[in-house]
Design brief:
With about 350 residues, the protein is an alpha/beta fold. It has 15 helices and 10 strands. α8 packs parallel to α11, α8 packs across α14 and α11 crosses α12. It starts with a strand and ends with a helix.
């Protein structure tokens, strides 16, 4: 019998719990109960978030108005939440993942496997590491990934969307994840390309920041389409430089071009970047994040910084002018208008490749 725990309970984590819970209750090979680890918070009412979720079957802070399923159990104790699980779904902001993994070392089942819904990467002195690799290395488990064109609030309303599972070698494990997530309104497929799927989910947030800046500057669809096209090219080139095994075809899955389009049209990175440009860059992304996202985390700006560190270390900065521009604007080195000026400074031999 398979036991599932969601490690994370934000907006996307709560939607993942809803999807999975609707399937485990109908699949004989899965225990009905889905545990969801909740980073405990005290609500304005004085109540604990985990208690309210269990009483109302609703994450009133991060996904208000949506019932998660009566078989979802919120648990503020991480060790207790994972102790019986052989299927671990990781969905916390990427900057917290290393700390979470360190707490779980030696505390999970030996036959456990994981899937990461986390978009971002870890950058250290020894080089960049994908979150799925971090999980695998620290916990000694196989870890797949799930990424796609899926804005959480729309999935919560059961509007049709898609996602892609990326796996390394174990096709059977991938199909188990597909079975666990797939619903009539959430169509899931799998590809044997963990790095490609995860890099798409990571890098598209940088391009979404650029798209939001365009919206804040009140520029049109032509400009936004150009930014998205250049961003897609940079996503593929950067991914293949880091991981030569990345397949071009992966960018045509839901995790690739579809997720890029969705994130550049909606989503928190675009939304906050638009506000940043509307304010002429006078209010920081940190300030806007705190005001606008109500506890959710903005990934695009942090990812732009991490990617820039990799580019500087490896001498790639001039190869990725859009990524460079997003980093410099979001760090306060350039004004928001620079997002449409960077193209003039691209060396001709690089521009021709874009």
């Amino acid at each position: 019998m398979n036991n599932v725990t969601i490690v994370g309970s934000g907006n996307w984590g709560s939607v993942a719990a809803k999807l999975i819970a609707s399937n485990t209750i109908n699949l004989r090979s899965f225990n009905d109960e889905v545990r969801m680890w909740v980073y405990e918070e005290t609500l304005p009412s004085g109540e604990k978030l985990s208690d309210v979720i269990n009483q109302t079957n609703e994450n009133v802070k991060y996904l208000p108005g949506v019932k998660l399923g009566k078989n979802v159990v919120a648990d503020p104790d991480l060790m207790n939440a994972v102790k019986n699980a052989n299927l671990l779904v990781f969905v916390t902001p990427h900057q917290f993942m290393e700390g979470v993994c360190k707490r779980l070392v030696g505390k999970i089942r030996k036959d456990a496997e994981g899937i990461s819904l986390v978009k971002g990467m870890e950058v250290k002195r020894e080089g960049p590491s994908l979150i799925s690799t971090l999980i695998s290395n620290q916990l000694g488990i196989n870890c797949s990934v799930l990424m796609g064109a899926n804005i959480a609030d729309e999935i919560a309303k059961e509007e049709f969307s898609e996602a892609t599972v990326g796996y390394r070698r174990d096709k059977a494990a991938a199909e188990r994840w597909v079975q666990l997530f797939n619903t009539p309104y959430f169509s899931v497929t799998s590809v044997q390309d963990v790095e490609g799927v995860e890099m798409c989910g990571t890098l598209k947030n940088i391009v979404a920041v650029a798209a939001g800046l365009i919206d804040g500057l009140k520029m049109g669809n032509n400009t936004k389409a150009a930014i998205m096209r250049i961003g897609l090219k940079e996503m593929l080139a950067f991914s293949k430089l880091l991981f030569p095994s990345v397949k071009d075809s992966t960018l045509f899955e839901s995790c690739g071009v579809a997720d890029l389009i969705t994130t550049c049209l909606g989503g928190r990175n675009r939304k906050v970047a638009e506000a940043f440009a509307l304010n002429g860059g006078k209010r920081s992304f940190d300030e806007l994040e705190e005001q606008m996202l109500k506890g959710q985390k903005l990934q695009g700006v942090l990812t732009a910084k991490e990617v820039h560190e990799v580019m500087v270390t490896r001498g790639w900065v001039d190869m990725f002018p859009l990524f460079k521009a997003v980093y410099e604007i979001s760090s306060g080195f350039l004004p928001p208008t620079a997002i449409v000026e960077f193209n003039n400074n691209i060396p001709h031999h690089i521009k021709n490749k874009l």
